[in-house]
Amino acid sequence: MTSTTKSNIVLDVSGVNKSFGGLRALTNVNLQVEEGKVHAIIGPNGAGKSTLLNVCIGRIRPDNGHVVFNGETLDRHQPHEINQLGVSRVFQTPEIFADLNLLENVMIPAFAKRDGAFTFNAIRAVSAEKELREEAEEILHDVGLYERRNHLAGSLSRGDKRRLELGMCLIQKPKLLLLDEPTAGMARHDTNMTIELLKRIKARGMTKVIIEHDMHVVFSLADKISVLAQGTVIAEGLPEEVRGNPRVKEAYLGEAHG
Amino acid sequence: MFGNLSRQDWVMFLGFSAVVLLAPILFQPIGAAYPAILEKFCIFGLFAIGFNILFGLTGYLSFGHAAFLGIGSYAAVWSFKLFTMNVIPAIALSIIFAGIFALIIGFISLRRSGIYFSILTLAFAQMSYNMAYSVLTPLTNGETGLQLTLKDPRIVDAMFITPGTGLPRTTLFGLEISGGGLGGFYFTAAALIIGFYISMRIFRSPFGLMLKAIKSNQNRMRYTGFNTRPYLMAAFVISGIYAGLAGSLMAAVDPLAGPERMQWTASGEVVLMTILGGVGTLIGPVIGAAIIKYFENIFSGFNETALNSVFNFLPDTLREPIVKLLSLFVGEGWSLTLGLVFMAIVIFLPGGIMEGVRLIASLFKKGGNGNKPAVSGHAQPAE
User: Domain residues for B75?
Assistant: First the structure.
């Protein structure tokens, strides 16, 4: 059992409720993510997984309950402030700069990391930012898109857009990386490549929360799994514990494995 | 400081400057080489360059930029009336006033995006226009417009110069600006070249890149850690200052200011100029401005006599119907031609004239070195 080692809680979601009209999307959700771990959230469609991530990045305000990141309560924070604290997110539908080239796409988050939420930097030229460009090129190597660095991001396939977005998050070296189905829409080969990439980042000690449908991905990456169904956490534990849990089988795995 | 631009950019900048400075010679064949029209090219080119920093880079379409043009003109004329006929203080005053108004209007309008932003800016401009017409008459002289008079104090000038008999002309330390001489043209040309240089630096800077990224995906910008509001504010104020500067130059070459300068048609015109030339390109807006002003001033002067002399070589039976048909499109029909040209461009070349130029250039390149994929060219639409 690895849970005996002393660990820090990076992300602490406690008692979060959220309703949209009459629909209860999240009911008293609690989630503790430990530093340096990969925490997977699984669950059937409509279970509230994406809503939970939206609450974490300030896109949606919870009706009540709190999200605490590294000791800071995120209730009143704007999305850009949450990012500046060290939270980056890969979205379910890739959010990239379609009209800009890949290199620019990856350099922009690096500017945010270096210069903060607003800097009026109209004197230097982008081409003079050698360090940031080299950093961006390295990241593009990591995600396997370096050869296409001068292409427009909008011209990429969906799977490649996803990897680009991952690169855009990685260059910020976030303390917490939120991944919403990072391998959806990818061919098996690309999925394996992404898993390898995520394993490599794990070695760098980046904490991750990952939403994933692909059980192959979940069980090859996750240190801990929370199962969400109908807006509540119905099970939580190490991968092998969750795999054996009858409630989980009923709610989710049963469906997936037919 | 100068080393940050690429060689390609320097070539473009020097080429642009050369064309502007040689315009009195180059534009001779098309009949647009006299100072009054060349000054218009420069002033509206500058207006469009500034507008493009907002619309081209961030995608926020302002329908009220003529307000800043008008404010710049009024501020400049007041400077001529109260202080001195020197244009430098007039320009400084215009920039300050346009900047302050842009801050206020931007602060309110930028709370919304898309069509709501456009409508808010339009509302502000129409409000300024109507106020200049009515309640602000003491400041703007209402419908007649603000003009110089012999009774103006001109405090600074009065200390050094004994006034002549007629109305004084605007000057740049002795060099006459108003009055229709080449001095006025070279002054506006210098302003255009400086304005172009600054716009180029903004396009190539991290600030410019952030504005392009906001246009591309503002949500991603927020979740990437950027506070987008101050970026938009900065772009709005910069483009407002460009408009104010253009307004003050209008007053410098012809020292009067009227409320019609702020009307929505004037705001719409700069949108047309930018789209016609190429939104988000560096040179496009200047070309668009020159074309529209050319149509308005030169093309509108073509009449049947001129057409007859062009088609003199044809037999009369053929010439008459051709001249009758074409006369619909020239002279007073210039706006019909401009409208057709504009429609054709928007439908076939959404990137404006600059997209056409790029297409032709890439055809030539393909002929030269096989079919090399033009990837980097697409990524940098500003070239």
Answer: 2-280
Structural domain contains residue B347: no
Shortest Cα distance from B299 to chain A (angstroms)? 37
Distance CA B262, CA A233 (A): 60
d(CA B251, CA B139): 15
ipTM surpassing 0.85, yes or no?
yes
Here the tokens at position B148 are 């110089």
Strand (E) or helix (H) holding A227: strand A224-229
How many A/B residue pairs have CB atoms within 8 Å?
Answer: 120
pTM for this model (two decimals): 0.90
Q: Which two tokens stand for residue A199?
A: 């394993």
Cβ–Cβ below 8 Å for B207 and A121 = yes
pLDDT in tens, A143-160: 989 999 999 999 998 888
Domain membership flag for residue A201: no
In degrees and rounded to multiples of 5, residue A30 shows phi and psi of -120, 135
A83 touching chain B per CB within 8 A:
yes
b/e string for B124-136 if b means 16 or more Cβ within 10 A? bbbebbeebbeee
Measure the CA–CA gap between A201 and A195, rounded to whole angstroms. 10
Same domain? A78 vs A182: yes
Q: Which of B223, B224, B227 sits opposite A118 (nearest CB)?
A: B227
* Contact check, Cβ <8 Å, A123/B1: yes
Q: How far apart are CA A178 and CA A211, in angstroms?
A: 8
Residue in A closest to B374 by C-alpha: A151
Q: What is the number of structural domains in chain B?
A: 1
Q: Taking CB atoms and an 8 Å cutoff, what residues of chain B touch A139?
A: none
